[in-house]
Amino acid sequence: MVNKIFLKIFGVLDIIKDFLVAWGLKILIVIFALVIMHNVIKISEISSRYQGEYKTLTPIYEDEKKFMNYYEVGQGPTVVILPEFGSQSPVTQYKTIVDSLKDSYRVVVVEYFGYGFSMSMSKHERLNDVIVEEIIKLLDYRQISGPYTLIAADTSSIYAMRFQQKYPELVSSIISIDSVYPAEYNDYYRMNKIRDRISNVNLTSIWELTGFERILSYVSPKTFYIDKMKELTNNYTKEEISVYRNRIGSAYLTRTMVREINKLEENIKQMKDYTYPSHLPVLQILSSEKKDIYEYAKNSGDSKVNLVDLAQGVITNSKIQGINVIKGDDQMLQLSNPTGVTLAIRNFLAGYYDFDSFSNNITTNENNTNANNSDENNSNVVNDNSDISNNNIINVNATVTNTTTKSSTTNSSNSISNTSKDVFQVELN
């Protein structure tokens, strides 16, 4: 009797085993086919059928035949955009910022090695000084002279700090977007989060071999903010979105990016005591989502600092260095809330950054810009009734309320010459 029971059990197990083997083989065959197909397509894309305006390769290491890509448009003071980590196509992902500045500034978008149309890099380590020197070489080769305003997102904020530290005469101001802060190195919880991020990138990068992200860009365009791009019809054409999808397939967590993220802790450590020099104008843009995440960690006792603490920690002159909190996602804020980001940047570059008396902390939603800044003495609220009129005037009504005894209202009309009307009319509607 017992033998019959065991025989039946083994019989069922054999059926299950045969089923798993059969389907396991099928799944492996499908994955293998996807890997082959993805890499054939990828080779074709890398060898590059695209020869449009967004591709301008620059020899950084001529002997090694290693080229970096960049994009340049406009005339005037030079603004250099340094992308967030893992940006598949900086030249398209930062187009909302580029379009808002190109009529008044010379705007340069840098694509690091492993990003966008730039080549891969295995020899030169992805350390602060190496990346800074590569940026300098690119700008020198293209005869783009300083001083520069650096707009740096995410991990690029660390590179911007090191750039300013090494070449102070070449940096006129810095704008950071959802920065990684050097002082995070001193907080156990924050560094654990950074180490988790490094581990996740190493793990997730395996998917790059299958081309899964290429399929995902069609199945779930929201994942890569393609849905937002389609809404911004004055910023993005179908061809530009196609270029972006092409780069998602070819530059999603490349091996060069993985090598870069593996050096992040070392790069942060090098800059852990950095503060902005008191003469340097600085705008720190924080997304409301990231601010809330950091705030929750501090309130729960996991972390000793929130995002505003970290941002205030690098400020040495509050009159020309400030913080704007803008409603939006903690990734690609320039696409989740392009109006809030571009308006803050344009006002700052136009010289309206008296942070003590104006808005030190702006929160923008779809219809208006509400600022909530609190420190020991002041709480500032800014209502954005901005419009791009025929004479290019941005009108900002700022209400500044002192939580102790005083309240006042400030109305300012900020004239910005040669701004792009079309872009802002679309974004503000």
- Tally of alpha and pi helices: 16
Going by helix content, strand content and strand pairing, the class is alpha/beta
Q: Tally of extended strands?
A: 14
Order of helices and strands: HEEEHHEHEHEHHHHHHEHHEHHEEEEEEH
Core attributes:
disordered C terminus; alpha/beta; 2 domains; single chain; eight-stranded mixed beta sheet; four-stranded antiparallel beta sheet; 429 residues; 16 helices; Rossmann fold
Would you kindly provide a written description of the structure presented here, covering whatever features stand out?
The chain has 429 residues and is an alpha/beta fold. The chain has 2 domains: 1-47; 57-369, 3-Layer(aba) Sandwich (Rossmann fold), CATH 3.40.50. It has helices at residues 2-47, 90-93, 95-101, 128-141, 156-166, 188-204, 212-219, 226-231, 238-250, 255-261, 264-270, 288-299, 307-313, 333-336, 338-349, 421-428; strands at residues 57-61, 66-73, 78-82, 106-111, 148-153, 171-177, 282-287, 321-326, 362-364, 369-371, 373-374, 378-384, 393-402, 407-415. A hairpin with a 4-residue loop joins strand 9 and strand 10. Helix 1 packs across helix 9 (238-250), helix 3 (95-101) packs parallel to helix 15 (338-349) and helix 7 runs antiparallel to helix 9. The longest helix is centred in the N-terminal third of the chain and has 46 residues, at 2-47.
